[in-house]
């Protein structure tokens, strides 16, 4: 892969997917993002109330994780590189004419076909990274999280005028690839936050123990929008100041957790304060509140969980341009985990977008937790159209 393709990967392949989930770590990713009811304090990123779920010998937990997801990346980047190479060769036929090798209609048509093929190409990507420290307690638990999420989408469009430009070059004997109007456009939004979580557990009549958690946090939102014609598309320019905007604000998550008979239940509301950012094109993107409910049961070492988004998530949907960036989504997630002697965990999951805008995903995961002290978690995520993702996490319990 050349330098431009590598830069394209860094700048465009940035989460989840596409999904715009919360900070889903590798353990949760293996079970399709579930965990707000079945998780313990090590997954307080999903629900701060989980900070009250721990074993007697658990004092605190430190974890570092990263998760990435991408769709159609390799083929699209290769296609862009091929088109740019074709433009260079076609232009050289006019700038350095060779009587024995003049430009032909076949050369022109091949270039036109390659430009048209880009019209259907997109790149979707998401990246999550998180460093967290959790100290559990039923009286007053707390946690600190440093996290970042990045969603990106690249689109390439064919301009009909380019067909006439290329055809007419055969007659005029002159061609300048800078006149090409077909273009590539990249949008991205990043959310970085510093969060402090608190939780406590108390008794409620008819329910029993009820855990409540809150996570106040400071968030910085960054938007990126880069546009260039295909011949000048250079992802090295992507992060220049002229393509970026940012804003900073305060936000809040609230979570509940309880055990009702043999079932565990959870409810979490995230990003209760909407945050807006306007990109350099004047498009407003909004981080919207979400509410998710979960229920889980533990059957002889097998945990089963169902998590449902109770409202449609319209975060970072651009009004009047459904295809421009993210689409509304409302996820239903089902996950299962088999714990083998508290040393190895096998995981699988499935998620479906009830809004019908995103394809289904299947997930698998592996956890290794020798002596319940060091934890290593791996996950793979698989969708349609070569959409794949992976996550890795390392943690230490004390």
TrEMBL record:
Keywords: Signal. Residues 1-20 form the signal peptide. The keyword Signal applies. It comes from the Bacteria. This is Conjugal transfer protein TraF. The gene is traF.
């Amino acid at each position: 892969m050349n330098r431009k393709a590598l830069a394209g990967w860094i700048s465009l392949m940035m989460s989840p997917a596409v999904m715009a989930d919360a900070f889903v770590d590798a353990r949760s990713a293996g079970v399709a993002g579930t965990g707000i009811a079945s998780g313990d304090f090590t997954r307080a990123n999903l629900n701060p109330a989980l900070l009250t779920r721990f074993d007697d010998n658990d004092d605190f937990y430190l974890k570092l994780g990263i998760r990435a997801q991408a769709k159609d990346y390799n083929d699209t980047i290769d296609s862009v590189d091929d088109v740019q190479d074709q433009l260079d060769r076609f232009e050289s036929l006019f700038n350095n004419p060779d009587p024995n090798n003049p430009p032909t209609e076949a050369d022109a048509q091949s270039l036109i076909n390659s430009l048209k093929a880009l019209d259907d190409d997109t790149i979707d990507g998401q990246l999550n990274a998180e460093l967290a420290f959790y100290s559990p307690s039923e009286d007053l638990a707390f946690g600190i999280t440093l996290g970042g999420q990045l969603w990106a989408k690249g689109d390439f469009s064919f301009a009909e005028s380019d067909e006439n430009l290329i055809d007419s070059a055969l007659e005029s004997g002159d061609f300048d690839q800078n006149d090409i109007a077909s273009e590539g456009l990249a949008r991205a939004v990043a959310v970085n936050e510093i969060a402090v979580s608190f939780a406590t557990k108390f008794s409620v009549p008819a329910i029993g123990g009820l855990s409540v958690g809150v996570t106040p946090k400071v968030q910085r939102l960054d938007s990126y929008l880069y546009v260039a014609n295909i011949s000048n598309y250079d992802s090295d320019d992507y992060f220049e100041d002229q393509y970026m905007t940012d804003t900073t604000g305060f936000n809040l998550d609230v979570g509940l957790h309880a055990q009702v008979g043999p079932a565990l239940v959870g409810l979490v509301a995230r990003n209760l304060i909407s945050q807006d950012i306007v990109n350099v094109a004047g498009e407003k993107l909004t981080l919207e509140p979400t509410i998710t409910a979960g229920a889980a049961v533990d059957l002889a070492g097998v945990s089963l969980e169902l998590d449902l988004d109770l409202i449609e998530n319209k975060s970072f949907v651009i009004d009047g341009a459904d295809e421009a960036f993210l689409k509304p989504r409302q996820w239903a997630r089902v996950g299962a985990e088999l714990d083998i002697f508290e040393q190895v965990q096998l995981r699988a999951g499935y998620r479906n977008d009830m809004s019908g805008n995103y394809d289904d995903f299947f997930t698998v995961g592996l956890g290794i937790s020798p002596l319940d002290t060091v934890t290593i978690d791996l996950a793979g995520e698989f969708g349609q159209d070569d959409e794949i993702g992976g996550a890795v996490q390392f943690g230490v319990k004390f």
